[in-house]
């Protein structure tokens, strides 16, 4: 069947109830009876099937081709294959249970989106540099139909750039706790490395708010084990002495540590390296893990511009408090717990561009805060 005329001639032997898909799969049924049960071309009761006019068959073929079925010259197996993305996009229809206006209002801009369900319950929070294309990708994704089936409307909040979107997404995940996002791990019990009076790095558990105020804290870890592993890697990677750093008990005065025996330690335990030299190398190794205390007396604004729009992201003690722009002159009201002390996620987002001098920071005297 290489031409439409040959196919039309064959279809004249089929009943009106026979679909084109059945016709295309019938050769496969004959070839693989164990996989596809054979369907007889004879109508029930043994009656001869009525013939279709050739012109009607030609018209049906044309309609099937417009629907994305493809030309009959394609391999027969492709008619049972999943439809390509272009076909799914052409035949996609908006879910009727989702507020259509909320979909139509999605901008081609950077920001954060919220899928909301019954009673406006938050289901999922995400961010994108193009809100419209990202949300439509969710709606097209067959693997997310459970989420889509629960959604009643889609809320979007535009931001001036990617930093603002990341900060806003992080705060919404904490405040809203949407059902379909990965649960954020509690950070109340965080661990760090702190120097003892003898100059040894020790694993210490501290309250989260201390990270923005205390001096000489190195690294932030979510478990004591992770902090211990980081300390061991630091000692091994920089040729430090495991006895001097407190990781190994000395076997006796002047006895070498295990690292010295395998020529990894430089001999601080045996007197071959002075305590001052070892301490200097220890501090250099720790420097990459140093937590920077908040260096300002009050909140600061990070100015971000994009697509003719400007926002000021308000940060205090490395915690994101909200953003100000031409439409929002006051910070939004948030739970009191979300406005206090250090925030690890905000710190991770801001610290690198801050240290590289990439942030446009401005003081915010008389900052207007909403009542929480």
From TrEMBL:
GO terms for molecular function: hydrolase activity. SMART domains: GIYc. InterPro entries: GIY-YIG_endonuc, GIY-YIG_endonuc_sf, GIY-YIG_UvrC_Cho, UvrABC_protein_C. It comes from the Bacteria. Residues 108-182 form the GIY-YIG domain. Keywords: DNA damage, DNA excision, DNA repair, Excision nuclease, Hydrolase, SOS response. Gene3D superfamilies: GIY-YIG endonuclease. The keyword Amino-acid biosynthesis does not apply. CDD domains: GIY-YIG_UvrC_Cho (cd10434). PANTHER family: EXCINUCLEASE CHO, UVRC/OXIDOREDUCTASE. This is Excinuclease cho. It comes from Herbaspirillum frisingense.
């Amino acid at each position: 069947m290489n031409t439409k005329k040959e196919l039309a001639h064959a279809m004249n032997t089929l009943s009106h109830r026979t679909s084109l898909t059945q016709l295309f799969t019938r050769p496969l049924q004959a070839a693989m009876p164990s996989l596809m049960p054979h369907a007889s071309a004879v109508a029930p009761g043994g009656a001869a099937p009525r013939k279709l006019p050739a012109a009607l068959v030609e018209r049906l073929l044309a309609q099937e081709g417009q629907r994305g079925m493809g030309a009959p010259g394609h391999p027969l197996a492709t008619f049972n294959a999943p439809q390509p993305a272009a076909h799914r996009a052409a035949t996609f229809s908006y879910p009727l249970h989702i507020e259509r206006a909320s979909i139509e209002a999605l901008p081609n801009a950077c920001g954060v989106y919220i899928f909301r369900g019954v009673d406006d319950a938050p289901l999922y929070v995400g961010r994108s540099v193009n809100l419209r294309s990202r949300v439509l990708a969710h709606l097209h994704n067959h693997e997310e139909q459970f989420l889509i089936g629960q959604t009643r409307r889609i809320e979007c909040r535009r931001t001036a750039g990617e930093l603002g979107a990341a900060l806003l997404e992080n705060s919404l995940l904490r405040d809203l706790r949407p059902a379909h996002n990965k649960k954020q791990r509690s950070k109340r019990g965080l661990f760090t490395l702190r120097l003892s009076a003898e100059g040894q790095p020790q694993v210490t558990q501290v309250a989260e708010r201390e990270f923005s105020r205390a001096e000489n804290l190195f690294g932030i870890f979510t478990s004591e084990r992770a902090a211990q592993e980081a300390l061991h890697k630091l000692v091994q990677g920089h040729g430090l002495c495991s006895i001097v750093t407190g990781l190994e008990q000395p076997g006796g005065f002047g006895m070498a540590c295990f690292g010295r025996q395998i020529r990894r330690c430089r001999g601080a335990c045996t007197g071959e390296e002075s305590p001052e030299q070892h301490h200097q190398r220890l501090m250099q190794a720790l420097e990459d893990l140093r937590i920077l205390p908040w260096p300002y007396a009050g909140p600061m604004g990070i100015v971000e511009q994009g697509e003719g729009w400007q926002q000021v992201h308000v940060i205090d003690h490395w915690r994101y408090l909200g953003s100000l722009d031409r439409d929002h002159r006051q910070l939004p009201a948030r739970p009191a717990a979300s406005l206090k002390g250090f925030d690890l996620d905000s710190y991770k987002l801001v610290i690198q561009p801050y240290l590289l001098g990439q942030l446009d920071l401005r003081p915010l005297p008389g900052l207007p805060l909403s009542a929480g």
